[in-house]
Amino acid sequence: MATITFLGTSGSVVTKKRMCAGILFEDKLIDVGFGVLTNLLRSGKKLNAIHDVYISHTHSDHIGDFTGLIWAMAMDRRTEPLRVVSSSSTAASLERILDLQSTPQAWVKFDIMFVRPEDVGTKSVTTIHEPENLAYRFQTKQGDLVYIGDTAKSEKISEFAKGCDVLIHEATFLDGQESIAAVTSHSTARDAGNTAKLARARRLVLTHFSPQNEGAEKQYRAQASSVFDGQVIVAKDYQTITV
Ligand SMILES: [Zn+2]
Ligand SMILES: [Zn+2]
Question: Phi and psi for 160 in degrees, rounded to 5?
Fold first, then answer.
């Protein structure tokens, strides 16, 4: 069985209850938004258990702690290489950020290998978001996990997520907030429910909640469940589920 731990479930900024985007999936850290490193350490997870870092896109709520993670691994005396999986444009930005934040290469005693998802056999698709955002699909013996990152509602994503066991979909907004969702290329809980329905996913996990909707967990679940018949989970920081 594969374990997924939510290390951050807020969109845009951290709140009292939620850090920004980040998930630990076995030996993979998927997105490293602000606060994810803190939650990773507080949850007792070991940095050297992470072999791959997957990044959806370069908005700071998805990469804010990236340099901090590299420094923490260096302080932890890591020597094993770290693979960073992303689009080529995201990789170029991450390399530049490490450089601009004066991360001393001689002091980091491990190789950071920037690779594309196809290089490591992981399926990906570009979503509707700016800058370029990749959704990823991971295979396990029990079923597939699909992580979207950020997106506006997209039928291409329901195709990509077809038949998955767990669909982790952003739900930044709620009913009545469709116009801001459109302007910012984000989804509502209902959009996520529709995508899960079209994909025939078994379970839908909502995450990346707008801080302005803090405390609206019941509405998130109800609005996604009004269109999707499967199980809907409204993710919380530190929550663990299995595939
Ligand atoms: Zn985001
Ligand atoms: Zn974004």
Answer: -60, -35
